[in-house]
Amino acid sequence: MKVYLQALGCKLNESELEAWARDFAARGDQVVTDPRDADTIVLNTCTVTAQAARKSRNLSRHLSRANSNAQIVLTGCYASMSSEQAQGLPNVAFVVPNADKDALVKITRERVGDFPYAPYFPSPSVNEQVSLRTRAFVKIEDGCNMSCTYCIIPLARGRARSRPQNEIIDAIKSLVDGGYQEVILTGVQISDYRLQERESGNGRLRGLCDLVSEILRETPLPRLRLTSIAPWDLDDELLDMFSDTRLCRHLHLSLQSGSNTVLRRMRRPYTVEQFADAVEMARAMIPHVAITTDVIVGFPGEADVEFQESLEFVERMNFARVHVFPYSAREGTVAAQLPLHLSDLVKDARAKAMQRVADTAQAKFAKQNVGRTFDVLYEEQTNAAGIFSGYTDNYIRVATRSNKNLSNRILSTRLMENVQDGARGELVSNAND
Ligand code: SF4
Questions:
Q1: Which tens digit of pLDDT belongs to each residue from 257-282?
Q2: Is 151 close to ligand 1, i.e. is its CB under 6 Å away?
Q3: What's the whole-model pTM score?
């Protein structure tokens, strides 16, 4: 089978796509990079906003026009929440709901190609075959037990559930064998990672810290990056783990709003003061840590004064990066039923204002780190002029000129000046050998 895979939306969708690509390749299927060469197309959709759902439909139609002979398999949050509509799109052979996602490769091979399905063991060659980048996403948990009033994820992805630890460790070992330098642990909210420890017989609840220390102990992985941590889960035990320099100094803490009255209507279980304390604690314990976040603007009923509070709080927090989302009503959520929805005009204006604050903060964070030396994982040559780009562990994008191929190498780099979206770097003397 020749299979083309594409994902929209979050890092979790990306990590699922990468795992499926490795799974298909390990079974002898060819993972193609052009949908016109495929006989099967898998699209991992998103519905976190109305725009994302629209994009999912449009992309599915686009892929069917690009290759009218291919069978399309739709999965992901849009396909799960609107399965009938998704099934009705051109050339869609079938929908795999989120609940069956982990078995997508098996289902697809049996339904599309009548291909037998047998267990397999990831090998380095598979990773080389589907090696898309120097950094790999690894899914550790899915679903969510919270009920934030704007969020469709608990409806689309179900209750929180965690992947067995040994499975995660094996996947990371295979990625390291395949030459990956960095792994990004993904999930809906990875601090929700919980596993009842049967083996140890004491039933102790093992969480994210146990998993991270196991990965750092059991694998030679050079760099480990965490994604969304619930602000209310941030504690000394987790922050202490950053004394291991293989753990990237980057924390993504979703704020959602900088106004306490809006946070209450969102049913977020913290105040801006508690959030600020958590950030302060992290900065005190992890030098030069990057704190990134998500902020929704234009939540139903968000008064001018509430938006101003949110804007000023975000400014005060000096985030390294802020993802700004204009509120989007999602059918089935509590917030969609709330009164006083704001016009798109107001939401757009607030998103622009918040984005200006975000851009200023991002540039300021890069500037604060100019003059310092970091290990940068170089990903690709970005232009013919021998410029390679990559990320520091604290998530600054660095562009460095070199006449040597720096791809997939972690090299000591001095940040010389901040530039658009990051910094210009220079390799420290012996790094270019
Ligand atoms: S926003 Fe709230 S409900 Fe949605 S995934 Fe995050 S914690 Fe769960």
A1: 999 999 999 999 999 999 999 999 99
A2: yes
A3: 0.90
